[in-house]
Specification:
Layout lengths: L10 E2 L1 H4 L11 E4 L8 E4 L3 E2 L2 E4 L2 H5 L3 E4 L2 E7 L2 E8 L6 H19 L6 E9 L5 E3 L3 E7 L6
Parallel strand pairs: 8-9, 9-11
Antiparallel strand pairs: 1-6, 2-5, 3-6, 4-5, 7-8, 10-11
Length: 152
């Protein structure tokens, strides 16, 4: 099956992309993203203004996935924390069901773990042909779901 244009947009895991000069890993970082004009989103769980990402040190940058392109972004609140779900790639998902399910998961996780320490949280969800895996980050998580899965 031929991948769609939406599935070929940049998504990077910082630890796999960014290097640092030994001894400078605790320095503040500004990263400028120069995206095509027709791409509306730069999604990252770090402060960003006018395409410039700001972070306090290398560890934060390395632990913050970045998605660039045109994505649908769903939003909900759980435990007084704003959550965004960045839907990467094509899928037959029902937006309201996705938000409801993620909200339930976050609410129940809060009952087990206590108060969420994050101010904001991003769920990067890649809609793929063969799903599997996920990774937890400080202020975000990445996961995959079948593009023709349970949300149709």
């Amino acid at each position: 099956m031929r991948q769609s244009y939406a599935d070929q947009l940049p998504f990077c895991m910082g630890v796999s992309v960014f290097m640092y000069a030994d001894g400078n890993e605790k320095e503040a970082i500004e990263l400028t993203i120069d995206k095509p004009a027709d791409w509306k989103n730069i999604e990252v769980a770090l402060p960003i203004k006018k395409g410039v990402i700001h972070c306090d040190n290398y560890d934060l940058l390395a632990d913050s996935p970045i998605a660039i392109g045109n994505f649908e972004v769903l939003e909900f609140e759980s435990q007084k924390v704003t959550h965004q779900i960045v839907m990467i790639g094509q899928g037959n998902y029902d937006k309201e069901k996705v938000k409801k399910d993620f909200n339930t998961i976050c609410d129940e996780t809060g009952k087990i773990n206590g108060e969420n320490p994050c101010k904001d949280y991003i769920h990067f969800i890649q809609n793929v042909e063969n799903a599997g895996g996920g990774l937890k980050h400080l202020n975000s998580q990445t996961g995959q779901m079948f593009r023709r899965g349970i949300y149709g």
